[in-house]
Amino acid sequence: MAEAHQAVGFQFTVTPDGINFHLSREVLKHIYLSGVTSWRKRAIQFKNGILTGVYPASPSSWLFVVIAIMSSIYARLDPSLGMIDSIRKMLPVRFCSINFHTVLSAILFATGLWWSLILLLRFTLKVLLSYHGWIFEPHGKMSSSTRLWMSLVKMFSGRRPLLYSFQASLPRLPVPSIDDTICRYLESVRPLLDYDQYKNMEIVANEFKKDQAPRLQKYLWLKSWWASNYVSDWWEEYIYLRGRSPIMVNSNFYTMDLLYMIPTHRQAARAGNVVHALLQYRRKLERGEHIPMRALGVVPMCSSQYERMFNTARIPGIETDCVQHMRNRKHLVVYHRGRFFKLWLYYGGRHLLPSELEQQFQCILSDTSEPQPGELKLASLTAGNRVPWAKARQKYFSEGVNKTSLDAIETAAFFLTLDDEAHGYDPDRAESMDLYAKSLLHGKCFDRWFDKSFTLVVYKNGKIGVNAEHSWADAPIIGHMWEDILATDYFRLGYTEEGHCKGDINKGLAPPSRLQWDIPKACQEVIEHSYLIAKDLADDVDFHGCVFEEFGKGLIKKCRTSPDAFIQLALQLAHYRDKGEFCLTYEASMTRMFREGRTETVRSCTIESTAFVQAMEDTAYTSEQRLALFRKAAEKHQNMYRLAMTGAGIDRHLFCLYIVSKLLDIESPFLNQVLSEPWRLSTSQTPQQQLNLVDIQKFPKYVGAGGGFGPVADDGYGVSYIIVGENLITFHVSNDSLCLQDSHRFGQNIRQAMLDIRELFIVIDILKIIYLNYLKKKILFIQANKIDYFDENIKGSTLSSN
Which sequence ranges are marked TM in the entry (predicted)? Predict the structure, then answer.
């Protein structure tokens, strides 16, 4: 055991003369190095905390202000208008000279002035960031007022910001007006209801707007001014943590490895490099040294969700779960063939090197010991219903070795599974992407710890992926980390020619230790019950991965259309062809331009999109008419997306009104109906955030495969997609296999819809070319006829003159 190995460094013997201590120099060296590393880490965190706390100013600017004030005093000027004298009079005169009091008063005044200027800068930046007119301007066209605004934002944003530098300057999420929300809601459901249904909904909505809404809205206004964000805490609690059904499939999501590449087929080596890259990322995250994400390179995004990425676990409760976040945890828990291992990530005050991690993981892979009773499927407790897991945790894991081992899992940096299967995308195997997705989303239902912030999965062929818990953060946060990890693994760390991690083997490392369990028969029955529930859920979900290589963002942009709007309209067309009807459609949009912002819903099924889809299925429409309807629908979708991003969405406002109504015990038929409507088509785009990490033009095979999630409704589809480079779009389609949906069929419908919409532009382009050629020939014909006519006239006039 690791503890026993380290214990031999400290020994003592009792003799008649007293107690003799024997200390190992090696152990003392490691203790010393660990202490140095710890204090260095605290110093860096303290320094970065100060830099973040005074941003957009700098600590050196304080010295400049102090020097300026002191210089003015020695020049017998008083820039404080008497405030320095007032401060001096309030200071105790005992044991201090008058000059010292004057200097101290000047420094205190300068510090107050400096801090006031910082607050003024932050307030100014917050006011500037509250302007969102730039997002509604046509792509590629920027007004002079927006150019001026952008220059001012750059000027007040300071230099070299850290990850959390902009948090105090971000505006609050605004509360939309009741009139706007109700109006937009009614517009969104108009294409889904017949005339009588719509009129009835209109009456219910207007009654709510007149009777109950004003009172509920006042409480939301109050919360918006009191809390940092009027949505996020309720969203986390009521949408995620209070759910009592399994989070596996229903809530957790997954992210895949690069689509085409595997840098090494050695499982231990790939795990070593990736874990080391994660430790490097965590160190920069703890220090706040990551560069904050900014729209257009100017508008900062909220970074609050990054805080709970590591050392975090969801803790089950009877009525509601909670998120537990720890700091300074230095171990990792690894699952392999039914055994749990604890692995220390530090040696001599530093991170383990990739080669050392590979050595540790190889020890685990070579371990032939058997699982303890109840250990094999223990993690299925996190995959089943939440209440049985909460009760079992209280009864069987609250003391003894079970508590110690469970604490090790829940406080670990993250959870790692060394999977004994091989997965990945293989163009020659049609089902390879589907099996890869299912494995990442649920695995065997007992080989992922679904409560951890994320589980890293390393397959035996070297492919990797992530299963992430959803309550603590949204997919772009995991995506940011994953982009950095893959780039570090491939381009910075690398592998030897034999596929091993670079570096030497360290024979002084203690091997990973097994976690110990004492699981009684009654608890094993609970584990088995949770496993069966999870297995039924996993067997019911179906996946299809669609790698669309026919065209991508490059061609779509040449058509002067938003790629996201293009894909959303293709999804509407595909769904109509699949089901023969329209449905309420969810597209996730982010609200991270506001403090603690998370997501908002874009209702992609609109009056304009349904008109376009119906035109595509009606042979009476010409290509020109269809294209005109497409452009109108795409513009509508872009405008809705912009409204959602700027805090003027529909669903988060209605959700919060619903929560207030429940807290006040107010029954609202309108809100009850709105919140019970099923999202039969749930969609989300996985954004690429750090394009500078990999040059896709130079390395075209180093492209991400994106990720996905389970279907939201039992009779619906879940669709995630990622737009990579100029010529690739990858779709991840999920559905409940027990219903009439078919993810493979829907995937083919998406492909055909994309091609059919492209055909509109091709047809129009061909017609334009034909028309231009016709005009060109006509002009040439006219010019030729004019020349002939001119020549004949000249000849005629010459003959007549002769």
Answer: 60-77, 98-121
Alpha-carbon torsion (300, 728, 566, 714), positive or negative: negative
Q: Give the count of beta carbons closer than 10 Å to the beta carbon of residue 19.
A: 8
Asked if residues 287 and 45 have their Cβ atoms less than 8 Å apart, the reply is: yes
The tokens for 88 are 């001096």
Q: In a 3-state reduction of DSSP, which class is residue 112?
A: helix
Burial of 787 (0-12, 13-18, 19+ CB in 10 A): exposed
H or E stretch including 213? helix 213-226
Neighbours of 231 (CB within 10 A): 28
**DSSP per-residue codes, 640-652:** HHHHHHTT--SHH
Q: How high is the pLDDT of residue 9?
A: 46
What does the pLDDT read at residue 773? 63
CA 206, distance to chain mean position in Å, is 37
Residue type, 649: G
Strands of 316-389, DSSP E: 322-325, 331-336, 339-344, 346-347, 350-351
Closest C-alpha to 335, from 435, 409, 439:
409
d(CA 753, CA 36): 61
In this prediction, residue 37 carries a pLDDT of 61
Cβ neighbours of residue 236 under 8 Å, at least 6 residues apart? 323, 471, 472
Instruction: Identify the three-state secondary structure at position 333.
Output: strand
CB-based contacts of 502, cutoff 8 Å, min separation 6: 354, 355, 493, 494, 495, 496
Of the candidates 351, 423, 442, 470, the residue annotated as catalytic is 470
Contacts of 554 (CB under 8 A, 6+ apart): 725, 726, 727
Helix/strand/coil for 585: strand
Handedness of CA 111, 117, 123, 125 (dihedral sign): negative
CB 170 within 8 A of CB 126: yes
Q: Residue 763 burial (CB < 10 Å; 0-12/13-18/19+)?
A: middle
The alpha carbon dihedral of 364, 369, 370, 375 has a sign of: negative
Q: What is the Cβ-side half-sphere exposure of residue 671, based on CA atoms within 13 angstroms?
A: 22
* CA gap 165, 53 in Å, rounded: 7
* Residue 32 CB neighbours (<10 A): 12
The residues pairing with 588 across neighbouring beta strands, listed in sequence order, are 601
Q: 213: Cβ–Cβ under 8 A, 6 or more apart, which residues?
A: 178, 182, 657
CA distances from 448 to 64, 336, 364 (A): 55, 10, 17
User: Please, which residues have CB within 8 angstroms of residue 238's CB and are 6 or more apart in sequence?
Assistant: 659
Supply φ then ψ for residue 544, to 5 degrees.
-145, 125
Residue 305, CB half-sphere, CA atoms under 13 Å: how many?
30
The yes-or-no answer on residue 744 being catalytic is no
The torsion angle over the Cα atoms of residues 215, 221, 223 and 229, rounded to 10 degrees, is 140
List, run by run, the mean pLDDT of 10-residue segments along the chain (802 residues). Answer: 42 54 60 64 74 83 86 80 79 68 84 90 93 87 89 89 92 95 96 94 94 94 93 95 95 95 95 97 93 91 95 96 91 96 90 95 95 96 96 95 96 96 91 94 96 97 96 95 95 93 88 95 96 95 93 89 95 95 95 95 96 95 93 95 95 96 94 93 91 85 92 92 93 83 89 93 70 63 58 48 42
C-alpha dist (Å) from residue 312 to 163, 333, 411, 692: 19, 13, 7, 29
End-to-end CA distance of the chain: 122
Q: How many other C-beta atoms can be found within 10 angstroms of the C-beta atom of residue 706?
A: 26
- Amino acid 14: pLDDT: 53
Q: Of 306, 286, 706, 703, which is closest to residue 490 (Cα–Cα)?
A: 703
- Longest Cα pair distance anywhere in the chain, in angstroms? 149
Question: How is residue 264 written in tokens?
Answer: 């090494």
Q: Which helix (H) or strand (E) holds 600?
A: strand 599-603
CB 630 within 8 A of CB 569: yes
Q: Judge contact between 429 and 447, C-beta under 8 A.
A: no
